[in-house]
Amino acid sequence: MWFKKFSPRDTITDIFLESGKQTALDFRLLAGSLVGAVLLSFISIPFVSKAARSLGALANPGGRHIHLEPVPRMGGISVALGFFPVVIFAVPMDRQMISVLASAGLVLALGVYDDIRGATWKEKMAVCIAAASVLIFAGHLYVRDLGNLFGLGTINLGWLSVPFTYFALFGIINAINLIDGLNGLLCGISMLAFLSFAVLGYVTGNIPAIFLSVVCLGAVIGFIPSNYPRARIFLGDTGSLLLGFLIGTVALMLIQDDRIKPVVPPLVLLLPIFDTLRVMSIRFFSGGSPFRPDKKHFHHLLLRSGVSSTDTVMFMWMISVVLSFFAVFLRNRPSEFILVIELSLMFFMALIVKNLRSVRLIESKIRRNAAARSRVGTRAVEAGKEDSASAYKA
C-alpha cells in the first residue's frame, strides 16, 4: 500500500496530522499517484480513440478547425481514467472528496454526450448547475469573500456567496473550454495551472488541493503526447469541460484557507479569462450571441498574423508560465496590489491584440498593393504582346 492505515472516519487532512501539528507530506503516496495517473491516462488512449471512432465522435476538417483529416474527440475520457481511479484508490474519502468526484462525474457525462450527440447551451447550463450545486452544498466549497481588494477591508459576500460561486465556476469552465483551439494548448495551460495550484497547496499545507492538483497534472501529462504537436486525438468537450471544472474546484479548495487570497487563482488563469472576456464582449457589442463560436480568439489572431500553430502554442504557454510565476511569488502581497498587477497584465495583453490587428491590416494592405501591381504588370505584358503581334503582322 502507498499510504499508512487510516480510520474510515478520518479525512485526508487527518492522515497527515499528528498531535495537532502537520507532518511531512507523504511524497511516496504523492509520487505514486502522479505516476499512476500518467500511466492510466496514457495506456487508455488507443482504446478511447477506437471507441470515439466507432461512436462517430470525430472532429471533421473545415469550419473553425485547421486540421486536414477527421480526428477522434472524447480524449477527456483518458484524462478521466487517469483521474478517478487514482483519487478513489489513493485519497481517503470524506464528504468533500465524494462531492468532488460526484460533481466531476456529472460534468464528464455531459462532455461525453456533447461529443457524441451535441448538447445545447441550456443542457450544458443545467448539468453545470447540478454539478456546482453538489460541490457547494454537499462539499461546502464556495467563495466566502473577495479579500481586501481595495484596501478598505475584506469584502464579505454574505448571501451572495453561493450565487457568486456559481458565476465563478461557470466562468472558469467556459474560459477553459474556449481556449481549447490548438493542439496541446489547453493541455499545457492546464498542466501549468495544476502545477501552480499544487505549489500553492504545498506552501499552505492544503493536502486535498495538493493531491487533486498532482493527480490532474499526471492525467494531462499522460494525454499530451497524443495531442501535441500532432494530434491523434482531441480532448473534446469531454476533456475541456472536465478540466475546467477540476481547475475551478481546486481553486475553490485553495481559497478556503485564508492564506490564499481569492484574487490569486485568477492570476494563474488570467490568459483564458482575458481571452473569454474579450471575445464575448466583441460578440455582444456586435449584436451576436456571446456563446456563438468564431475565429476571434487570441490564438486565431496569432495564426492570421503569420505565426505558426506550434509557435502560437509555445507563446501562449510562456505567457501562462509568467502568470503562474507571478501567482506563486506574489501570493503574500496585499490583494489590492495583486489586483493592480492583474489589471496591468490584461492591459498589456490587450496591447498585444491591438498590435496584432495593426500587423494584419498592414499585411493586408501590402498584399492588396502587391496584387494590384501584379495585375498592372500583367496588363502591361499583355499589351506589349499585342503591340508586338500587330507590328509583326504589319
Contiguous helical run count: 14
Beta-strand residue fraction:
under 5%
- Inertia-based shape: globular
Mean pLDDT: 84
- Give a count of the beta strands, DSSP E runs of length 2 or more: 4
Unreliable residue runs: 1-23
**The number of domains:** 1
Order of helices and strands: HEEHEEHHHHHHHHHHHH
> What's the alpha carbon Rg, rounded to whole Å?
25 Å
User: What composes the largest sheet?
Assistant: 2 strands, antiparallel
Walkthrough of the structure:
The chain has 394 residues and is an all-alpha fold. It has one domain. The chain has 14 helices and four strands. It has helices at 12-15, 27-55, 76-90, 95-116, 121-138, 161-178, 185-204, 207-223, 236-255, 264-268, 270-285, 298-304, 309-329, 335-393, and strands spanning 17-18, 21-22, 58-59, 71-72. It has a two-stranded antiparallel ribbon with strand order 1-2. Strands 3-4 form a two-stranded antiparallel ribbon. Helix 2 (27-55) packs across helix 8 (207-223) and helix 7 (185-204) runs antiparallel to helix 8. It is globular, with a radius of gyration of 25 Å. The relative contact order is 0.11. Mean pLDDT is 84; it is low at 1-23.
Key terms:
394 residues, mainly alpha, two-stranded antiparallel ribbon, two-stranded antiparallel sheet, 14 helices, 2% strand
Quick overview:
The protein has 394 residues and is mainly alpha-helical.
Write the layout of secondary structure elements.
Layout: H1 12-15, E1 17-18, E2 21-22, H2 27-55, E3 58-59, E4 71-72, H3 76-90, H4 95-116, H5 121-138, H6 161-178, H7 185-204, H8 207-223, H9 236-255, H10 264-268, H11 270-285, H12 298-304, H13 309-329, H14 335-393
Antiparallel strand pairs: 1-2, 3-4
